[in-house]
């Protein structure tokens, strides 16, 4: 597969890691923009050691730092043979990568190889010449520039239908996960609303019963103590019991 574009495809790279390693062995142009690989992903050292035909590599917006560059390119004193055919490298939108890291782990390592173009991000337009001055004395053939147009890389080759099928499968899986999350939120909100309504209804019912019992108690205060059967609770005791029931309904949720 000579070209492959996998923007924002971290989940697919993780699910089909071994398959992609086999596909990348003959690749020439690879775009991994926005995959959020980080510094510890196993694909970083693999690209340098097992992709001898790779000419253009886009690692923009991948949460990389100088540690990730060291993992990918090695150190100048290691005498490694990584990225023997790399012509263009895009490291834009990786704010944790420092100028010192690029000089040590990219420029110094690749100074005897064929790398011609290095794309990095500047904080502002005024810093572009300044960054160029930082890199140019170390390696004259590198062009430091953050105002270049996006490289045109698309899926081509025998594995293109397979990669597109993986794309469709991951999109369907993501869609189903979103539906499940929305359904969970809907039923959770509905359940909480039902519980709150039941709680309010129980509280209002207890309040009515307590008010009725208090009215009975106040009315019974004018009656002689022996005018009612002894087996029946007095209104005041009944009001106390209902008051306890009221507090139980209030604090049981």
Describe the protein's topology:
Blueprint lengths: L2 E3 L4 H6 L1 H7 L5 E3 L11 H8 L5 E3 L7 H8 L14 E3 L8 H12 L6 E3 L7 H9 L7 E3 L14 H61 L14 H17 L2
Parallel strand pairs: 1-2, 2-3, 3-4, 4-5, 5-6
Helix pairs in contact: 3-4, 4-5, 7-8
Outline the structure in words:
The protein has helices at 10-15, 17-23, 43-50, 66-73, 99-110, 127-135, 160-220, 235-251, and strands spanning 3-5, 29-31, 56-58, 88-90, 117-119, 143-145. The chain has a six-stranded parallel sheet. The longest helix is centred in the C-terminal third of the chain and has 61 residues, at 160-220. The chain folds into two domains: 3-160, Ribonuclease Inhibitor (Leucine-rich repeat, LRR (right-handed beta-alpha superhelix), Alpha-Beta Horseshoe); 192-251. Mean pLDDT is 75; it is low at 123-134, 136-143 and 223-233. It has eight helices and six strands. Helix 4 links the parallel strand 3 (56-58) and strand 4 (88-90). The protein is an alpha/beta fold.
